[in-house]
Specification:
The structure is a homodimer. By secondary structure, chain A is mainly alpha-helical. Chain A contains 7 helices and 3 strands, in the order H-H-H-E-H-H-E-E-H-H. The first copy, chain A, has one domain: Orthogonal Bundle (Arc Repressor Mutant, subunit A). The first copy, chain A, has a 3-stranded antiparallel β-sheet with strand order 1-3-2. In chain A, a hairpin with a 5-residue loop joins strand 2 and strand 3. The termini of chain A are far apart. At the A-B interface, helix 1, helix 2, helix 3, strand 2 and helix 7 of A face helix 1, helix 2, helix 3, strand 2 and helix 7 of B. The structure holds a DNA duplex. Chains A, B: It holds the Pfam family HxlR.
DNA sequence: CGGGATCCGTTTCGATACTG
DNA sequence: CAGTATCGAAACGGATCCCG
């Protein structure tokens, strides 16, 4: 487990369990990585890199390490030339798939909703924080 | 919408919709805030502050503003002395409740699983990244 | 009561260059 | 191919003081 994850698992009360999920899945690219590994079963470093539209190797490596440390994916190194490294979901990672799917679905709906908002010319009486009115 | 949220909604491809969810819900205390507003229907600033075990006012204010900007909660100001401000879920926020619940459930299970790992004395052959072995 | 202003340390992201 | 090393910029969480 990452130190950060461990701290949160230890110290936070049950009331905020959702924060644990955010701590584990909240890094850049992480949900996408889990999603792709869910679809493809096994992926090499370079394949992940291309599918994700090229985050820098530095960044991708760190996210993968963190997911590994938190137990969601496994990393298998083939000591050969040229090197080859395979990533898969662990049991824990497969257990997270429904959550990732839910994140994907809600995020898609939210993005679609907001894109409609962006497309629509701001109409009079639109809701740009006009609640500064005086209800009482 | 926050600038950050808007950037992500605009620029990311559909393949990474989950990142949108993380962008919106990924701040400290945010899932907890939504959770509490789901339970209590309406809460004042001070009530939220106490229920969350006292984040500083500065931090709580910022998270509430971001959630408001992203359209998940509403803020109603009563111009009286002493002041009174009420927070509620918006329609968008109510729509996020199933997602928050899923985050809470998975986070709870993950935390329980990892706490068992922490409690168990590390047994021989435990999995602290021993995959550096040579499969081929 | 419900903040705003200011400041700061840490974390995180990301670009560039290099390597077994 | 799959990284590592180094560096800079920015975002974030948080403390402290002040205010209508």
């Amino acid at each position: 487990m990452r130190e950060k994850t461990e701290r949160i698992v230890r110290e936070w009360t049950d009331a905020c369990d959702a924060e644990v999920s955010i701590a584990v899945l909240g890094g850049a690219w992480k949900p996408s990585i889990l999603s792709l590994l869910g679809e493809h079963d096994v992926l090499r470093f370079g394949e992940l890199s291309r599918l994700l539209l090229e985050p820098t190797a530095r960044v991708l490596t760190r996210q993968l390490r963190e997911l590994e440390d938190d137990g969601l994916i496994t990393r298998e190194v083939y000591r050969q030339v040229p090197p080859k490294v395979e990533y898969r979901l662990s049991d824990l990672g497969r257990g997270a798939q429904p959550l990732v799917d839910t994140l994907t679905r809600w995020g898609g709906e939210y993005a679609a909703h907001q894109r409609r908002m962006l497309a629509a010319p701001a109409s009079v009486g639109d809701d740009e924080r006009q609640k500064e009115s005086v209800p009482q």
